[in-house]
Amino acid sequence: MVKTDATVSPAGDVPTLRAVTRPLGKLPNLLAFADEHAPLFWNRGDRGCVGIGELLRLSFTGPDRFRAASARWREIAALAAVDDPVAMPGSGLVAFGTFAFADESAAVSVLIVPRLLIHRHRGTAWVTEVTLAGETSELERGADPAELLPTERAVDAASWAGVELRPAGSTVDAYLAGVADATARVVAGELEKVVLSRQIAGSVSRGSDLRVPLARLSERYLDCWTFAVDGLIGASPETLVRSTSGAVSARVLAGTRGRHQEDAARDRAARDELLRSAKEQHEHDFAVQSVVTALAPHVTELRTSDAPFALQLPNVWHLATDLGAALGAESTALELVDAQHPTAAVAGTPTVDAVAVIAELEPFDRGRYSGAVGWIDAAGDGEWVIALRCAQLGEAGPDGARALVATAGGGIVEGSDPQHELGETVSKFRPITEAFGG
Ligand SMILES: C=C(O[C@@H]1C=C(C(=O)O)C=C[C@H]1O)C(=O)O
């Protein structure tokens, strides 16, 4: 029998899965079907998906976590029977995943295959039912897809008891000292850039409906991917890779200014200053180059948007560059993630030195923050973003409350100012502090 818990080892027997997809007549309100306490959710604007139930969970740790997951998924996909007349991105067999940042992290990286997937893609919708060998597929038997949907439950924002998040993992003073130390190392020529982060934490009370923060994130951060996978909840603007039928795209971000929505002139000035800053442009070009170099062996016809543009999010401006390419040799989305991770956006440059400085100066395990979160289908296509603007929920304690830890950081280069960096982390925490707030 196939085990469906974390004890499934990457080297175990290959489970035989069957995925049956059928169109859904009515456009679903995805969150109305999501699990209140363990949501599995992926959404951007009018495209998204909710997973219900957990059929299979694969766990990975260590430096090989991406490669091992990709290899394991290839085996599972090769054996799976997929009946998918819809043939859209994300139809057919799909696994959701969240991967740790550091090779030595105690956080487990996972791929999860839900029993039921409800998808919406603009004006169309579909349902996918996944079963194990020997189980009956209702959709295959001809059941009406609408009958497989769980009961709709409205999201009641009024029921939400706000979560207050306070500095955790280290003090603000320790973070400021770390930024000063990192800047000194850059000035001394030890490395060019290092991304330092800090944490805030709070407690989510028993029975809280996690669809409330998810609804807030997906309504406010329309240009971001809102996600919930294995207790990691957030809305990331940075696409590591999107691969569909041979087309690959990515979005590189580096360079940040807080928004000033209360003052339009000040807001525009912040944007213009970001676009004109030679320091930010230099750092940005470096980040783009590192992604280009990482992707180059896997793709052809690699092109970037002409000049970096200012990406406007509700909390920050980012310098952004979009990349497009054609998939070369047959690589899975997870292999493309592996080729890039960790990017200069979340580690620094040179990568090896930056990762070592992070391990030395950050007094906590980043867990899945600044790792990768996304999904992969049976063809190896998928969408993966850097796990930014997110928080990780822990297991419930004796009183049912769950710890919530959010992490945010920024690139430290020559000339970085600790107070300015602190302000930038406050802006980057805003999606989480506001979504989980009262
Ligand atoms: C590290 C984070 O964000 C990254 C760092 C940025 C920067 O230093 O300007 C900008 C966007 C992200 O690539 C974070 O949100 O925690």
TrEMBL record:
Catalyzed chemical reaction(s):
chorismate = isochorismate
This chain belongs to which protein, by name?
isochorismate synthase
Query: Which SUPFAM superfamilies does the protein's record reference?
Result: ADC synthase
Family affiliation: Belongs to the isochorismate synthase family.
Return the EC number.
Answer: 5.4.4.2
- Does this UniProt record's set of keywords contain Isomerase? yes
Q: Where is the Chorismate-utilising enzyme C-terminal domain?
A: 173-428
Lineage of producing organism: Bacteria, Bacillati, Actinomycetota, Actinomycetes, Micrococcales
Cite the entry's keywords alphabetically: Isomerase
Top-rank lineage group of the source organism: Bacteria
EC supergroup of this enzyme: isomerase
